[in-house]
Design goal:
Layout: H1 2-10, H2 12-34, H3 38-69, H4 72-76, H5 81-104, H6 106-113, H7 117-141, H8 145-170
């Protein structure tokens, strides 16, 4: 029960990361791109990036505070020291990965704005394949809640980082700048 309930708590990460900034960025990038206004594209993306960075930092600080102060065993209704230790480590991994998902989901929003959803689909296929491979390895060699968290959320985080790096290498004018 509690092992799988942990993943229910973590389901908000992908939803939160993409939906917060995606709609605004998507709606604004299309006209800027269509008009050939790369300066506007850059301003829009920089604004979205720094907003997402602030959100990721706020969520990260909040989660770090929760992890530091919460009695994880009590939160999940577990009192066995081994399970409490597993849940504590898994919660720490989630506290690290959720902000990464929030910040690096911007590439998905930008690709959607550029009407390049196929790029997102290709990256999602890669993330799913890596997740499946990671899950098989975890189940075979190191089953446990922390390794399951890494297997499920780590590949998607890594693929999102790669997706943003590739987007910025192909569209250098989108590299976030504090001033425009």
């Amino acid at each position: 029960g509690f092992r799988y309930g942990f993943f229910g708590v973590s389901d908000a990460s992908p939803w939160l990361s993409l939906s917060i900034v995606a709609t605004a960025l998507t709606l604004q990038l299309v006209p800027a791109h269509a008009e050939g206004d790369s300066a506007r594209e850059s301003r829009l993306f920089s604004t979205a990036f720094f907003f997402a960075l602030g959100l990721a930092l706020a969520v990260g600080v909040g989660l770090a505070g929760f992890v530091a102060l919460a009695d994880i065993g009590r939160v999940f209704g577990v009192n066995t020291p081994t399970f409490v230790a597993e849940l504590d480590l898994a919660t720490r991994w989630m506290a690290l990965l959720i902000p990464v998902h929030i910040l690096f989901s911007l590439a998905e929003a930008a690709h959607t704005g550029y009407q390049r959803q196929y790029v997102n689909n290709a990256f999602q296929i890669g993330a799913n394949a890596c997740t499946l491979a990671a899950l098989l390895l975890v189940v075979r060699f190191q089953p446990g809640i922390p390794t399951m968290v890494l297997a499920v959320f780590g590949p998607l985080a890594a693929v999102r980082v790669l997706n943003l790096a590739l987007l910025l290498s192909r569209r250098p004018h989108l590299r976030p700048r504090w001033r425009h």
